[in-house]
What we know:
31 helices
Amino acid sequence: xxxxxxxFSTIEAIIAHLNAQSTCWPSDARPQELPVPPAxxxxxxxxxxxxxxxxxxxxYIFGTGKNMLDKLEDDEYAYRRRANPYYPFPDEGEWQLGxxxxxxxxxxxxxxxxxxxxxxxxxxxxxxxxxxxLGWMDALPCFTEWKVSNLEFTGYKTTQPIELIxxxxxxxxxxxxxxxxxxxxxxxxxxxxETGGQREYGDYMSADMAWKIQxxxxxxxxxxxxxxxxxxxxxxTPVTRVTGGLEMHPVSPVFITIGxxxxxxxxxxxxxxxxxxxxxxxxxxxxxxxxxxxxxARLWHKCMDLIFANLKAAASEGCFMPDPFxxxxxxxxxxxxxxxxLPEASMIAALIIDLCKTIDPWDLDKFQxxxxxxxLSGVHMPFWHDWKYACPSVFLAxxxxxxxxxxxxxxxLNWIKxxxxxxxxxxxxxxxxxxxxxxxxxxxxxxxxxxxxxxHRDIQRTIVASIAGAAPPRFIHAIRALIxxxxxxxxxxxxxxxxxxxxxxxxxxxxFKDAIIDAEARRGKGGAKEDFYIPKLELLQSFxxxxxxxxxxxxxxxxxxxxxxxxxxxxxFVWTSRQSKDFALQCVRILNRQESMEIFDLFALxxxxxxxxxxxxxxxxxxxxxxxxxLSWVSRVxxxxxxxxxxxxxxxxxxxxxxxxxxxxxxxQLNVTPDYKSLSLVDIRTKYSxxxxxxxxxxxxxxxxxxxxEDTLWDGRHGRFSTWNKFRLQLRSSFQPRIIMPSRVIQAYxxxxxxxFGNCDTVLxxxxxDDGQTRSRxxxxxxxxxxxxxxxxxxxxxxxxxxxxxYIQFFHFxxxxxxQPELAMWSVERTYVQDNAGNRYRHxxxxxxxxxxxxxxxxxxxxxxxxxGVSSATCLESYERFLLxxxxxxxxxxxxxxxxx
Length: 901
């Protein structure tokens, strides 16, 4: 027993001892303070407080141990670091120089740097060569050593030796679990959280599987046990560079993380929440080509079995493991997810136990024929077969990148191209208004044969509105239903209502998919097809049940593993000798060095400043602007050292110093220096082509004076104005109000040669109706301005003229989503008014900037064919009718689905 040191003959006896009401339990068996799961942190602005509870019999503490940084003090050179925290470097400056050289220069470049004549008249660093520098770096504390194992397949020879480069997955998990960097971003107990009477499904610990493993299964965990859910990721990628005579290096790394770490942190590849545990050997067997795949698949599973052997033992028997707070926990390690693409998932899921009873699995000819007949790969001993609680129907969870975005690119987008036509589709994409921060397809989308997940998302953003009028309504309805499903599936938090909406969206697609067949849009090599035998389409049916079982799907997206392939394989190519024979070995040496340097940098920073090596609980309910745990930790304990922390930078929080809306839910920011410091009324009317600006301003002053009781002698006809070309609008997340979203730029540029009518974005504003009710209206921002008081004047501006104002031109709603069910979007039209002389002009008004609630995107109603002679610079001015695009981004989709409706 780790607490009373009693000895027991079996693990079952220890479990019984721990389950008993023993006197050896420490007084703080249930810690008084733990990190609060993000689901319970709503912030002060949330209108939906969360209620719920943690599992009462999990996560007990059985003593104290050492966290990851504590173990650096056990290093053989720890006694030297008491006097010099940066040993073997003489001081912090030289450590930073060495770290910079290793991170940014090749070995040849380091040698050239150290031989510069510049050092002839200046002190040289302590290291005199690249070999000495790299030797010092390699001497830094290392937590999990890499190994090389030579494997053989009895009876089957390969073209080259089978070398598995790996490290013990259990040691890597212990390092992750005890890393104090993640202390305030970890959850140790299953929990249930409810909002508005509905259960929320977020991270794994909030879902059903965590509770079932803890208590409901017949072989549930012992009292006080802590789950460390294992999430794996793997893929195969070619590493290519244009180099004479160099062959492609296929690499197949395997990654691991733990579900205790918040998904927001796990989703960032640069935050070290994922670790590489092996590079799988990719070899060719000297056999008939028909048997290559089955032998390679069996080799892959055998290697995985070796890497995860101790982790599987911990899943069955448990082990003691310190957490970031030095608390010793009794840990079990169930496999809950394996992130991969569909072909690899098929290879992982293969199981033919019953078949092995009748046919020798090593009689490849007979065995493979029978396996193929029932659509299995022929792997008879999958690596997970003895991993407790592991089942491929569970851990091969729905995956958004391949099953959602890649499916869209491979199928629905092709159906649209067939129906609308490449030329027409490209024309509609190229003329759409350009917004800052949003991808614009200047050359269209039809010519691209391969895209990234980001580009898939950007196409989905406007595809429904873009094909309106060019495709049959039922066809559009089917496409829109799929986009609805993909958007809903990406929710970071789900409620039963959102799961019902997902199921309904998929049902709608199946109800209208006959229109795709009627349009002969689904085609193969032999022409039009009349079926939907698409494996990824079938997998969409499992998404809702996966959310209930494991939590939100976004925590298992392959986006992060695709990024890891770049950082752990492709980016490393330039640092290697470019020889295929030991490419993987060079990669792990470089990665090991990078990992040691990053951990040592944080340790030395804290140690040299006298800070504790435990990341204390930070329970304040404050706004979240960064998901970088190291940055958050250092900013609290050593705020002057923030610049020394690498990784994602925080979102700039305009709620602190910006202009706030009346309800404090929106923040605005304008540059201190205006783009035009002093313009007259005539200047504005001429420069911005706003003939009715003076009328709108006078009307605003009159109404504001009446409503506030503040009169003013300031006369706009003789006054001066400061104007800006843009401002920033910032909102809180619709899903998690504590999270501050990146700000959105709203443009209002005057006419120019490039933009003959100006470059002006559209927004949603709150306006007061004649009945005194506040309504939302769509408007185009044409001018951002603020009245000025001339120097030396005794006038004071009233409150309503003392903050930035906007001149906007209105649109009015003409149809609702219910009137166009195939689009489910609002449509708007420019609003015009007539003066006494019968002249017709756009309806404009002056409003405070704080009346803006959202940035919105308008897509022209193109009709059957996009108009010629229109460009992205003129589309908002050339068309009169537009669709209010509720797919502009995931936050807008959530807002228009709930608040706006």
